[in-house]
Design goal:
Radius of gyration: 17 Å
Strand content: 15-25%
Number of strands: 11
Distance between the termini: 39 Å
Bound molecules: cytidine-5'-triphosphate, magnesium ion
Shape: globular
Amino acid sequence: MTNIERGLWCVVPAAGHGARFGGEIPKQYLPLAGKPVLARTIDRLCAHPLTIGVMVAIAPADRNWRSIACSSTKTIETTIGGDTRAASVLAGLRALRDRVKDDEFVLVHDAARPCVRTEDISRLIEFGVAAGGALLAAPLRDTLKRAGDAQRVAATEAREARWRALTPQLFRYGELLGALQAALDARVEVTDEAMAMELAGYLPLLVEGAESNIKITTPDDLALAEFILARQSA
Ligand code: CTP
Ligand code: MG
């Protein structure tokens, strides 16, 4: 038995500073088609019929959250994130301790991915619940090079069986909490939830998701996200 009928909580790490993006205001608070990136991301999650609420991990010195207006009437709460993405996700999970049982599934989704499609979230839940844990991912399309000295190509690597990890990622609350805590204790910097689960011995399922679910990393990505959103609503 799962909590799917009751609905899923989402954890959104949004405590980053956006170093690669640059600028004064963290990228998740910049306007995207007239609305902050983070508000668009939360709206996407809340628009899915199987979500019940969103726990957003924000930076301790955040001064932008209070101006965020989300469209949904679902529960949206904040907690203080950590120094790394994994620490922020862990903080978000801990803040849900009284509301989510250990064997219930939760979704974790980057604040910087506002273009995720409802149908991809549905497929992740459908296949992920059956598999006991999963992530959206995209198979690598480009030829992959390993760089050597002076940025010369050292080798061409096999493209087969290589995927790019996206979010959302879906795992059981207790297992994910334990896996992230174990990674933190071992001082292994995990860059997504699946990596923590892999280290703990699980085999997360790769569920193919749209390439349009980009992570806004640089200013160019913001323009691309605007284009993607316009296409999606056309
Ligand atoms: N994140 C977080 N807490 C951190 C670092 C990152 O909650 N200490 C969040 C970001 O806000 C973002 C997501 O994790 O929504 C993915 O991280 P990334 O795209 O790398 O964002 P930043 O870390 O902010 O950007 P950069 O790496 O360029 O500094
Ligand atoms: Mg980062």
